[in-house]
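To whoever is covering the structure queue this week,

Two jobs came back overnight. Logging them here so there's a record in the thread.

Job A:
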Amino acid sequence: MRSYLISALLASTWLASSQTVRLQLKFPKGDVQRVGTSMTMKMDFAMGQSMNMTMKQAEDAIERVVGSAPGGGGTVKVTIGKAVVSMDMNGKPSPMPGSANAEQGQTMTLQFLPNGRIAKIAGLEEIIKKSAQGNPAAGMMGGMNDKSMTDMMNLSYGGILPDHPVRVGDKWSGDMSFSQAPMEIRFHLNSKLLRLESHQGHRMAIIGMTGSGSMNMSGMPTQGGQVSMKTDRFEVTGTLVFDIDRGWFRTSDMVMKIHATMKASGQAGAKSVAMGIDMTTRSTYTPAR
């Protein structure tokens, strides 16, 4: 009996590893899901004296497919839900300016191409304006618009899913960039299909991701000077669970570590700033009909 069970297990493992699957987003009109995202970001700055900040945020949203294209792709309407945000400065709680839920109830639409990339985002600029009310920190996003947000979100969607059928052990990669003055980010993401699993009758693809990149802020304005940045470390690691049958994500866990040195020269002289960013995010996608 034991030898039969072992043989059955080996056979099922071999079949799973030899199976070819297509990891492609699907857009059945009317499909609805709830997205919960949590993020922890730690930032350290050293310029004469050190300063550290920790920000934690948890929020939810509703995604609804409002349109499907015959050749693939579709349009998804996103409704922003409630957010909970906290921040510490040098280990002490710091009040968050403005309201964390100023944009609650606001909507934007994402237009997806058949390959899973986002072609267009509409409505984001209105959400940013809403969140900026009474929040001076939102000035950091002053130059953000629908196009730059599209580029940033494609850092996630663009390189995660392959454009061809794969089997366990297969690898694929992609180069991505995001430019939003004065910042420019470029990185190379490597993905691998680690294994196939069954969750509540659905086929799941477990995808591992690693990447490296660079960050440039030479476009930052100075008083007649220059800004240069050296990226000492830029690493991305993560695991994605993709529901093959539903054609959408189930969970996504990502860790990003950035350490860089920025030098600026101007009328006040030269200054050097060492910066570190450690960010962890987790997203869960739950069908909500």
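Job B:
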Amino acid sequence: MKNTITRSLLCGAALALAAAGSNALVADEVPKGLGDQPSESEPQQPQKKPQAQPQQKPQAQTQQKPQPQSQPQPKVQQKAKPKPKSTFGGYLSVVLPQSDLGNLVGTGIAAGGFWEMPFNGLSPNLSGVASLQYIAFGEQKFLGGITCSGTQVGVNYDLHYYFDKVYSGFYGLAGVGFHNCTLTIEVPALGIWGGAASGSETKFGFEVGAGYCFTKYLDAEAKYFVGSDSWSYVQASLKYRF
């Protein structure tokens, strides 16, 4: 009985091995790839095409152009401004006697000429003025018909300082003068008495003043002269340069 069971188990095992061997042979004969095919029931997914990557264009190498070297520019020579030149001219004045002179004579009129030289090498604002003038003072009347008049001939030298530039704008002045002064006294004839007497004297003095140039050719000026023996006056002039 035991032998019968053993034989039946061995026969069953042999049949199982034979069936397994036949299945392996069938699987080897199936062409490759059929097993990978999806079943009809499963939907096929579309295959994604590989996207073409955009080709990067090679960047053009920018060649730096050599910069031209800056050449030194020639210096532009500025033209020198013309320097003021010497001028000469004339003037007319009204003279107002002061102090003791004002007690002897009346208002006078003066005329003169001048020569002005700028001091370009020293200062652009400074000039020297030499002048020659003649003054005729009016008569002054006293009791008894006595009259007194006077004249003056003299030279002056002044320094002018222009606040802007020579021959332009305001200026101040200071100088000296030498004058020959004459006084004439006339006495009306009373019987055997009467006639005229005169006397002259050289006066030295100083003067200060100021002026204004309207143009290069025309200016106005006022100054005060103080001489010896109280010979003093104020002079206002209108000057013209040629």
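Note for Job B: The beta strands are 87-98, 108-118, 126-141, 147-162, 169-190, 193-213, 218-227, 232-241.

Please reply-all if you pick these up so we don't duplicate work.
Q.
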